[in-house]
Amino acid sequence: MTEHFWQSCKGLEDKQLLFELKELARQQQRCSALFIACLGEADARDLLQKEGFSTTFDYCTRELKLSERDAFRNIRVARIARKYQQIYSLIADGSLTLCSVDILASHLKPDNVDRILDRAQGKSVRDVERLVAELSPKPDRPDLMRREAPASMIPSANGASPPRSSSESFPSAKPPRPDRLIFSAPTRVHFSFAADEELRNCVLRLKELLWHKFPAGRLEDIFLEIAKQYLNAHDPQAQLDNHNAPRRSNGSFHSRNVPKWIRKRVWRRDGGQCTFVSQEGRRCSERKGLQLDHVIPWANGGPSNDPENIRLLCWSHNQYISRAVFGFSAVSKAKIPP
């Protein structure tokens, strides 16, 4: 194809244009199946971590330039298709779309996969959603009753606003709702408030820093953790309790615990980013879920009180290096996020 291959379609006759469209659609379906198969194989290996990517999602967005939505969808489809390989041929011949497989993925089990896939073939996305609703019906939403607006507040047929008395004064925009605490259950409280972009950015950063502890990123966990840390640092009662608590060792040559001053130095030195670098010189860009790793493994005598023996690694690359050093049998390949 030339640089301006898209110009060639303008010279095609109607029948030839329709033929080309049909043939290209078939090629696209076959390519999608092959792409999903290759992605699933790469996802199952340590290949992407070796190349400097923290996750398959990281690889899809940074290297393959997929959108976040397409990356998540392709990864989910690749993983379920690797488990039930009849999906490949159904995608290749157009019987199922990637979107349909993605919708069905969480409902496929060894005892129902053939039956569900057979029912889903050739169906639209809306029909597949109906099939899923049949497989996992959800309870109806509760009835809702609310008062109608007063007649004086309803616009007239010509679109004009209703007349107002001299005493009426309506603001041009709704005022912000006040902060609220709603008790939704005996031990649960619902918080509701509006905030600016600064708080949003702070929360996103907190999610990155606390990912290793709260991978789901639930706001309840994040806010509770930060509140407890602040109270432990500033609440006189908490400081009194901490003062009376037994002291723990701050780490030594024989201890696996890394002293606090080394943690801070390593974090500044590594810039709060995974330090893994591939053979091509690509450094992992991951900044959440970082872990302190011993360059010389602690099990092999590596010290914990030497900053040069401590580095930042993301969870994925920490696991990858551990498997390379100790072997697959010693380090199980746990399930990781996309």
Kindly summarize this structure in a few lines.
By secondary structure, the protein is mainly α. The protein is about 45% helix and about 5% strand.
Summarize the helices and strands and which ones pair or pack.
Elements: H1 14-44, H2 47-50, H3 56-62, H4 68-83, H5 86-92, H6 98-104, H7 113-120, H8 125-135, E1 180-185, E2 188-192, H9 197-209, H10 219-234, H11 236-244, H12 260-270, E3 290-294, E4 310-314, H13 315-326
Antiparallel strand pairs: 1-2, 3-4
Helix pairs in contact: 1-4, 1-5, 3-4, 4-6, 6-8, 10-11
Describe the protein.
The chain contains 13 helices and four strands. It is mainly α. Helix content is 45%, strand content 6%. It has a two-stranded antiparallel ribbon with strand order 1-2. A two-stranded antiparallel sheet has the order 3-4. The protein folds into three domains: 11-133, no CATH class; 196-244, no CATH class; 260-326, no CATH class.
What's the overall geometry?
globular
- Specify Rg, calculated over alpha carbons: 28 Å
- The number of distinct helices, counting runs of at least 4 residues, comes to 13
State the separation between the terminal residues, measured CA to CA.
35 Å
Range of strand content = 5-15%
Average predicted local confidence, pLDDT: 82
Structural class: mainly alpha
Order of SSEs, N→C? HHHHHHHHEEHHHHEEH
Which labels suit this protein?
single chain; 338 residues; mainly alpha; 3 domains; two-stranded antiparallel sheet
